[in-house]
Specification:
Layout (H helix, E strand, L loop, with lengths): L13 H4 L8 H43 L3 H44 L11
Length: 126
């Protein structure tokens, strides 16, 4: 049974809910994290759209060159260059996206560590 009446309950405030070591209340910390995730997702989306556009242009150029090829040796050389270029672009894109999300993870754990209660340590992300 509840022994405390509604009249004696304290209103919500950051002091009653607790503040992190950084002086921000949990809602501010959560909003900052949501903003970081949103910005990272937007950047990743733009990068993937640019990558898709470049891939389409690269493929169209390779197809035009293949249509002009007169012998199998030239066609194989065009295909090899196309595959090599596609591989290099994909690995560069994967590296960039990986670094983007790795940076997001570091930022979020840094903010969590700042807001952690005294005595609690979070593992560092390398």
């Amino acid at each position: 049974m509840m022994t405390q009446s509604f009249a004696t309950l304290k209103p919500f405030s950051p002091r009653t809910f607790g503040q992190g070591a950084s002086g921000q209340n949990p809602m501010q910390m959560m909003l900052k994290s949501v903003e970081a995730v949103s910005k990272t997702a937007q950047t990743a989306g733009i990068e993937w759209a640019d990558f898709a556009k470049q891939s389409l242009q690269h493929s169209a150029t390779a197809m035009r060159e293949l249509a002009k090829a007169r012998d199998p040796k030239t066609a194989l050389q065009i295909q090899a260059e196309y595959l090599k270029g596609s591989y290099e672009r994909m690995t560069a894109q994967a590296k960039f996206i990986g670094e983007l999300y790795s940076g997001l993870a570091k930022d979020m754990t840094k903010d969590l560590a700042k807001g952690a209660p005294a005595g609690v340590t979070l593992p560092a992300i390398a």
